[in-house]
Input
Amino acid sequence: MMDEDGELDLVGRIKGNEGLVVVEVRARKEGGLITPREAVDIRKQRQVVETARRLLPRKGFHDVLRFDIVGVYLNDRDEPIRAEHYENAFDAGVLKRG
Output
């Protein structure tokens, strides 16, 4: 989901709930210096939360329940070899933290 001010990688419904999950997807080389999860630093977390707060209501969506991260590991040919899903990886409280 995208607008002129930012983008959200994935937005979906949580089965059995009325709320939404926003997923940040990051890919990194297997064995690299940082993992895909570590690549979603506090700056990126804040950007995702701010974008969700601004963009989702404009599209008629409300009630984000969760912010997840999906980390994709790539081989030497930049092909995905595995993925990891981190539920509740961060929350809107990142906007308040220093």
